Amino acid sequence: MSVVELKDVSKSYGSFAALRDINLQVHAGSVTCILGDNGAGKSTLIKVLSGLHPASSGEVLIDGVPTVLSGPRDALNHGIATVYQDLAVVGQMSVWRNFFLGQELTGAFGRLKTDEMKHITQDQLSAMGIDLPDVNVDVNSLSGGQRQVVAIARAIYFGARVLVLDEPTAALGVKQSGMVLRFVAAARDRGIGVVLITHNPHHAYLVGDHFTILKLGRQIVNVPRDQVTLEQLTQHMAGGSELEALSHELRG
């Protein structure tokens, strides 16, 4: 059974149909890649999965049960955590403070359990392959890839069963993108269901188990890995038929 499933989900804003009849299954220990260009509907899909905006029609099922998510906190309570491209981290605060931001461990009289939180942060990052010599450093001192990893590790530690990652490699170079993609694979190997939103078919194909391509709010591709090649994904993303027509026009 899928952890999260969308059945014929549509989302409209007034007369504008942002999503139309989307079907999607997210399984534990699997990476589902959602690809599409700007305006394809990726952001709207994130909002539906994260509970930010309810679907206009169709069903969202969690563990097979039709569920109406009332907001991001409700989604988190169901184990769905979204890590946005503009990370919800405070740059001037330490890594460990960011890791426990809003969910601090406290003891008697509300005193922070600082040493315990530092130890947990270090252990969780190490377990996912990130070796930070000092979790006291400000998040601003980390690379873009490391910041992404801190946000993802935090979500997993606080009980995420499904991770929705919004373009995590969009602003990163090759090395930092590789760090994040290894972390995505590690999350999958720990049994997390990952939804990877991206416009980069090469990154998607490195870690993906299932691929959906959106175009103007519709699914134009929805296939498991063994039914599609990287070249086919790239061609769909690039608008193969449109490019071919343009090529004839420009050469003609």
Description:
With 252 residues, the protein is of the alpha/beta class. It has a single domain (4-91, 159-251), classed as 3-Layer(aba) Sandwich (Rossmann fold). Helices cover 36% and strands 25% of the residues. It contains nine helices and ten strands. The chain has helices at residues 42-49, 72-77, 95-99, 114-127, 144-157, 174-189, 201-207, 230-238, 240-251, and strands spanning 4-13, 16-26, 31-35, 57-62, 65-66, 80-83, 162-166, 193-198, 210-215, 218-224. It has a six-stranded mixed β-sheet with strand order 6-7-8-3-9-10, sandwiched between helices. Strands 2-1-4-5 form a four-stranded antiparallel β-sheet, with helices on one face. Helix 6 (174-189) links the parallel strand 7 and strand 8 (193-198). Helix 5 packs parallel to helix 6 (174-189) and helix 8 (230-238) crosses helix 9. The longest helix has 16 residues, at 174-189. The protein is globular. The model has no long low-confidence stretch (mean pLDDT 90).
Please compute the radius of gyration using only Cα atoms. Answer: 19 Å
Count of spatially separate domains: 1
Widest sheet, order of strands = 6-7-8-3-9-10
Query: What percent of residues adopt helix (DSSP H or I)?
Result: 25-40%
Could you say what the CATH topology is called? Rossmann fold
Contiguous low-pLDDT stretches (5 residues minimum) are none
CATH class membership: Alpha Beta
| Helix and strand composition category | alpha/beta
Query: Quick one: overall form?
Result: globular
